Each structure stands twice: as structure tokens, then as C-alpha cells.
Amino acid sequence: MTFLITWQIHQGKLHPILAHFSQLSDEQDTAMMGDELKMIGRWHDLVSGTGVAICESDSAAAISAYALKWNNDMDISVQVVVDDAAAKKLGESLLL
Questions:
Q1: What is the mean pLDDT of each run of 10 residues along the chain (96 residues)?
Q2: Which pTM value belongs to this model?
Q3: H or E element that contains 22
Q4: I need a surface site. Which of 8, 59, 85, 87 has the fewest CB within 10 A?
């Protein structure tokens, strides 16, 4: 499954969170995600303290575990999303 994760860092937490994130090595970042989560990409709007990530996993629990490592300092939303091919296939089932 593909997941869209969005976040809004809590007021007054941007600088400490950014400082913490910038000190994570690639290995530490990967370890936080665990073995069941593959990060496709992550984008940050540092001015507003928001961002978005696309991840793949067969485990909703793995996505939740990763989000729980950050949600003390930010509001996080996780949504299942599909690509164009899957959306078209689902749309075809709606045709009468």
C-alpha cells in the first residue's frame, strides 16, 4: 500500500525539530522507519512548518509506529492513496 503522510509542526517547535532532524544520519532515519516501511520521498515547507511524505508498506501498524515517533511535536495525518492505474481500474468498476 502507498501512504500519504502530512504534518504540521506544533507552534514553537520548528527550530528544535529541524535541529533534531538535521542531526539524524541516514542510518538512524532508516532505523526509525523500521524494516516494513519504504520512504519514497519527503518534502518540507520549512517556513510554515508543514510537509508531506510518500511511503510504501504492507503494514498499517508500521506506518503508525513511525508516525508515533514524531507526533509529540506535530500533528500528523496518514492516508492510503493509489496511483493513476489503480484509480482508473477502480473507476472502471463504476461504469454502468
A1: 97 96 95 96 97 97 96 96 94 83
A2: 0.89
A3: helix 14-23
A4: 85
